[in-house]
Write a structure and sequence with these properties.
- Helix content is about 30%, strand content about 35%.
- The protein is of the alpha+beta class.
- The protein has two domains: about 5-115, Probable inorganic polyphosphate/atp-NAD kinase, domain 1 (Rossmann fold, 3-Layer(aba) Sandwich), CATH 3.40.50; about 130-280, Tumour Suppressor Smad4 (Sandwich), CATH 2.60.200.
- Strands 1, 2, 3, 4, 5, 6, 7, 8, 9, 10, 13, 14, 15 and 16 form a 14-stranded mixed sheet that branches. A two-stranded antiparallel sheet has the order 11-12.
Amino acid sequence: MNEKLVFIINPISGIRSKDMLESNIQSICERNQKDYEIFYTQYAKHLPLLVEELVKKGYKKIIVAGGDGTINEAGSVLIHQDVALGIIPQGSGNGLARHLKISLDPKKAIEQIVESNKTITIDVGKVNEYYFFSNAGLGFDADVIKHYETIPDRGLKTYFRASFKSLAHFKRFEISLNNEKKKFKTFLVNVANGSQYGYGYTVAPVASLQDGVLDLVAGTMKSKFGLLCFGAELLFKIKKTTKLGLRKAIKDITIHASEKVPLQTDGELKGNVDQAHFEVVPNSLKIII
């Protein structure tokens, strides 16, 4: 067993400067007399390979700096491992960090992790072959991410630009649950493990990372105006007036769509699907808090 703290930095993740990150890690670890080592990812998809290598070497605390997609890549390797994941939020949304009340200030987040002796074990969601920690979505929210990825800038303004691009063309699609005969039309289906989309958006405010269930939300509003109102209600945290159509706690469900629609997990596009099997993986990931 190796007690050294391992830090992994994704140099291209998110919108924050990385200039001070390494010096903050060094000064905080030295002040707390912690042995540490820093690694940088070198290329796309290097992170999961690096995490696998560190697990094999016996490291017990792997701390990752990055956004939700980066945290997902690292955490997916640590499912059912006796290794704790630390999160230094460096992304634009930071949904999991917000839910866990990890400071969005990188220096404070490093202090919190280095000085903490506490870990929790959280549930993880899975859709088809992909794990997710905050949420996964079918339809409109995934289409927004598709447009977001084509815009070089990052941040909330870019999400607004991508949202209006999706709003211009995206149409409702028909779904059924577990092959039931009843069908209904929707703009989006979101399955939440945590409460946060990112940026403070809360689509499932009572969602818990430790309750053994996922929270399914389907928006059956009939117009794009209704969809726009729903987005505004989420963003500004005002009383919900938009009818969502369906909310339910689930452990396992298959959603069948009438056509292929985009799928996202923790803000990363996973292509188009016409069937999505969601399930909860209880008590499966250790997190430093």
